[in-house]
Amino acid sequence: MGSIVISVATFFLSIAILAIPSFGKVSQEYIYPNYNASYYQYVDTLGIFLSSVKGTFNTAIFNPNAQQSNYYYLCVLYGTSNTIIWSANRNTPVSISSKFSFTPQGITLTDGSTVIWSTPRLNSPATAMALSETGNLALLDESNNSLWQSFDYPTDTIVMGQRIPVGSSLVSALSASDLSQGDYQFSVTNSDGILKWKGSIYWKMSMEPFAYSSSNAPISSMYLNQTGLYLLGGNGSEVVIQVDLSPAVFRIANLGAGGQFSISRFTSNVWYTEFVAPDDNCRIPYVCGSMGLCTPSGTGQGGCSCPAGFHSIDQDSSKGCLPSDSSYSLPPVCSNNSSSNGTNSSMELFTSLGANVSYFENIFSDPTVKFVNLSYCQSLCSNNCSCSGVFYANSSGSCNTIENQFGSFFLSQSDSNNLGGYIKVMVKSHVPGINGGNTSANQSSNGFPLIGLVLLPTTGFLLISVLFLSILWRKRKHSKHSKLDRRNSSSSLELDDIISIPGLPVRYDYEVLNTATNNFENQIGSGGFGAVFKGVLPDKTVVAVKKIIHVGAQGRKEFFAEIAVIGNIHHVNLVKLNGYCVQRQEQLLVYEYMNKGSLDRTLFSNGPVIEWQERFEIALGTAKGLAYLHSGCEHKIIHCDIKPENILLHDNSQVKLSDFGLSKLLTREQSTHFTTMRGTRGYLAPEWLTSSSISDKTDVYSYGMVLLELVRGRKNSFLQTRTPSKENGNSDDSSNESSMMGPVYFPLFALEMHEQGKYMNLADPRLEGRVTSADIEKLVCVALCCVHEEPLLRPSMVNVVAMLEDGIPLGVPRLESLNFLRFYGRRFTEASMMEGSNEVNAIRPYPLGNTGLTSNSSDSYPSLSYLSSHQISGPR
Ligand SMILES: *[C@@H]1O[C@H](CO)[C@@H](O)[C@H](O)[C@H]1NC(C)=O
Ligand SMILES: *[C@@H]1O[C@H](CO)[C@@H](O)[C@H](O)[C@H]1NC(C)=O
Ligand SMILES: *[C@@H]1O[C@H](CO)[C@@H](O)[C@H](O)[C@H]1NC(C)=O
Ligand SMILES: *[C@@H]1O[C@H](CO)[C@@H](O)[C@H](O)[C@H]1NC(C)=O
Ligand SMILES: *[C@@H]1O[C@H](CO)[C@@H](O)[C@H](O)[C@H]1NC(C)=O
Ligand SMILES: *[C@@H]1O[C@H](CO)[C@@H](O)[C@H](O)[C@H]1NC(C)=O
Ligand SMILES: *[C@@H]1O[C@H](CO)[C@@H](O)[C@H](O)[C@H]1NC(C)=O
Ligand SMILES: *[C@@H]1O[C@H](CO)[C@@H](O)[C@H](O)[C@H]1NC(C)=O
Ligand SMILES: *[C@@H]1O[C@H](CO)[C@@H](O)[C@H](O)[C@H]1NC(C)=O
Ligand SMILES: *[C@@H]1O[C@H](CO)[C@@H](O)[C@H](O)[C@H]1NC(C)=O
Predict the structure, then answer these.
(1) pLDDT digits over 741-750, tens only?
(2) Same domain, 261 and 174
(3) Nearest Cα to Cα of residue 49 among 104, 93, 9, 109
(4) Which of 178, 415, 641, 699 is catalytic?
(5) Tens digits of per-residue pLDDT, 715-726?
(6) Which of 63, 288, 313, 353 is the most buried (most CB within 10 A)?
């Protein structure tokens, strides 16, 4: 079933690819009118069609979440991390086949025949569209004046150098992948920068201890630069409020989907959170759902619960709470409808929240009335259908009516105002036959608005909370690096102590690892999950210490559970996890050290040639490690990221696979990011496109691609240099050499040579003939079987091992399932040819997030795949 879906999808994709006459070349800095672009044309750059001069920013038709196939946005991305800094159509995502066009009248984004988004009417015709090195997308007139620019329409992010005027706002997205507007807002007013949830203020910059007010002048704009965030007065010359930050090359300020406003800088391919507001999670209005109670972390459990007399609506206490008394229900949603207008005030009651329960609105809004008694305060609320409760202070007689749906409460032991909360509820009638209906009908009609009120916000909250948790996690880890670190580490230590999961590997003390790595001095690699450092433990064991950076949205418990699983996998071809450390906002994994580093460094470098026998050992060792993950251990583990960077070597031909199990730790949002960051597309199997049926066969495909690279000693997609050097030296047939000039998509070339039986043409020229045709044939046949488009036709890893060890006959590659390589190879060629002589820019180097590989040669060309990004989460 799934495979049919895949075939159909790839079939249509192939059609789409074939139907397009030419493939897009990424423009630099400018685009001129009468320009069209679609995602299909730029599928190999993930939709990027315009880059700024130095490639720092890109404009793309971009899908931040491969799970949702129709969620494409016209975006400005920050290069190396593909961070979305602006989107045009945030509330109306378009399909993969939508079209971008730029004419003198402006930009339009059309889906089918519907115009989804367009720039406003311009005062004069546009002569160019430009993406500046600061990330501003602008339409220019003939004298290069801006007619329209994205900086004037911020979404949820501003970048360094961007200035937004008083009155403008950032509006949070619903989640990292659904960019539509959420309930949180950051607004620049003439006196402050404020955060609002559904219109109610929950944070003011002027009240932030790390913000300095140096003037009372009216604010005219907000500005972010290398040294801080500024609210400026006058005509931008005078600083009114400032948040000083340490100098950074690039930073953004962003209002997260979880309601926190944060400033992050991008250093060494990692986002470090420098500033977060509100700092106290309990001050986020919807952190525990509607009427949930947030307890500040550090005191015991921390997190979400319910006020006394309330129960959580779900196992997960962060989704909000309802009155426990089953005869109470919340008042129906207030509307103009006469049917819901008929609510009977005689059926209303106020239920108390108990002592020490506070609400953010009380801090930022003045009392509705003062010097009144409680019953009067409550009567103000019962007469108002949009009022959902009151807070009342006995001592001062101040009365705050809450006009919105309730957000979350927080526990406050030091609330000197002594406000007591009262929530308006309806008492259900238990008298049968009232209102002419029977009891059950009555109950269901009572239940309906209740569900409507509670469930709707909570589904949104689910998304928000995932993001929020990930922010929280990131913050924990990186606040050490933050100038504004206000936490101490004791609370996270306490949390750790709660966690006891059987099978966890050795736990190391942070100080021990810090000393072992000499303060994380000797970095030996970096991958999508973080940088790797060499260290020597006190007992002289040499280890590789990985600082985890890209995991987090799941709970800590899941993290530990996963570490326990990884720690219990022992196989000679899998890198052993010796221990871990979670302390001081850091997560570190301690692995055995492999002294020859990763395969890409040896294989693609100009260093000593890896002889054929060793290549074969590498192929076999990798296959065995993978076979063990797929069928040897208790739970099947899909690696999801097989590539030379994850194959580690040691003296005596030891070969070990690393980074397995970690993809489980990613959320969907993260994994998209993660995959795209790592630029591993060349190894991704076609089924990633449908993102539906990822299986162990997905790893088999990646393995096949790696095998081909082992044979050739180069990346699979590369440009043939104009100087063939020794290329011809040992080929037994040089008639094909001419076809190899220019771009080469090696898997296609391998298929062609396989068909002609000319295997020696495929050998790494550096081997200078120290390999036989039969040897190459064996690896190439296995490789081609592994990259069959149809996953079912790919051998299992166990069978791959058997084929390599001659235990079973070599598989015969099935041409009908390899034809996709031809479309793909043609694309590669065309894309490269269009550039003409300027080969170096033939294909825009895909922003690589990792790469310890510092090759400047043509080998470092991005692996081209007809796939885009894609999710990795879940499977094992
Ligand atoms: C762009 O698309 C429009 C509408 O489909 C078409 O009229 C126009 O010719 C296209 N322009 C180019 C340069 O392909
Ligand atoms: C506009 O900018 C482009 C690119 O920098 C330049 O070539 C052109 O001369 C400029 N035009 C005017 C009128 O300044
Ligand atoms: C950043 O902007 C502020 C306010 O305009 C200014 O005082 C400061 O010098 C700027 N920093 C840099 C590095 O330009
Ligand atoms: C605004 O800027 C201009 C020059 O750009 C300066 O002459 C003027 O004094 C400034 N006004 C204020 C209120 O700072
Ligand atoms: C109710 O009516 C008022 C004015 O009559 C209007 O502003 C408001 O949007 C209406 N609300 C709903 C939910 O229809
Ligand atoms: C009013 O109520 C009717 C039915 O009860 C419903 O169909 C309609 O959408 C409601 N209108 C508003 C504005 O709430
Ligand atoms: C709801 O009730 C109030 C007071 O009873 C009345 O003023 C208002 O017009 C009613 N609204 C509708 C839509 O019936
Ligand atoms: C409101 O309650 C009173 C007394 O409890 C009852 O007589 C009346 O019918 C109720 N009205 C509605 C609209 O339910
Ligand atoms: C509360 O105040 C109102 C008017 O301010 C008054 O009519 C009422 O009697 C008071 N109730 C109590 C219980 O004091
Ligand atoms: C409320 O806080 C006060 C002051 O810290 C404390 O004495 C009291 O026990 C708290 N009450 C509850 C119900 O937690």
Answers:
(1) 567 789 999 9
(2) yes
(3) 109
(4) 641
(5) 887 666 443 444
(6) 288
